[in-house]
TrEMBL record:
Name of this protein: 8-oxoguanine DNA glycosylase N-terminal domain-containing protein
Protein's UniProt keywords contain DNA damage: yes
Annotated 8-oxoguanine DNA glycosylase N-terminal domain residues: 18-131
GO CC annotations, alphabetized: nucleus
Length: 187
């Protein structure tokens, strides 16, 4: 599968995801040990760059919404499906603010910590990537797991390139077919 930049000559435009901070806070959802493929690329504004399926995505937290832009796609991936892929990944139909209100009313401890973790969401990751990340997690810490998952992706996955930073290296997580080509020793 070939992966192509969305346009090396021009950077993709930011698009609203339609998820305010009470529904999604990037810093409470991405670097927390559920997924190991995201890198914080800016602190102000908060931005993360990572891979969702066969898309290289940049996310930006704003006070009113999360903005996204797709920097590269695998061949066959259509831009019309970008929002759908991200909405699925972040489980947008789940109204977190309603669930949080319910949990706060039923659990005193949760009501105390909720203001500090508001917008933390469970991610819907690719099952293969999630399984291999779990296998790597045995008796390891987050930075080591991140390194192991990155090495699997960089060795067997397809490259995704940031148009404005040719030195940045991102890879789609390899498919089962790509992983099956690896020897047991190499894994």
């Amino acid at each position: 599968m070939r992966l192509m930049a969305t346009g090396a000559a021009r950077v993709a435009a930011w698009n609203p995801l339609g998820m305010p901070a009470r529904e999604l806070r990037l810093e409470h959802s991405l670097p927390t040990g559920q997924s190991f493929r995201w890198r914080q690329t800016s602190a102000d504004p908060v931005e993360f760059t990572g891979v969702v399926g066969r898309r290289l995505v940049q996310l930006r937290q704003s006070p009113d919404d999360v903005l996204y832009r797709v920097l590269a796609r695998g061949s066959g991936e259509k831009s019309a499906n970008d929002a759908v892929a991200l909405e699925d990944y972040f489980q947008k139909p789940v109204v977190l603010s309603k669930l949080s209100a319910l949990w706060c009313s039923r659990d005193e401890r949760y009501s105390q910590i909720h203001p500090y973790v508001m917008g933390a969401r469970m991610l819907r990751q690719d099952p293969v990537e999630c399984l291999f990340s779990f296998i790597c997690s045995s008796n390891n810490h987050i930075s080591r797991i991140q390194g192991m998952v990155d090495r699997l992706a960089s060795r067997y996955g397809d490259p995704l390139h940031l148009p404005d930073d040719p030195d940045a290296q991102f890879f789609a997580f390899p498919t089962l077919e790509q992983l099956s080509a690896a020897s047991e020793e190499a894994l």
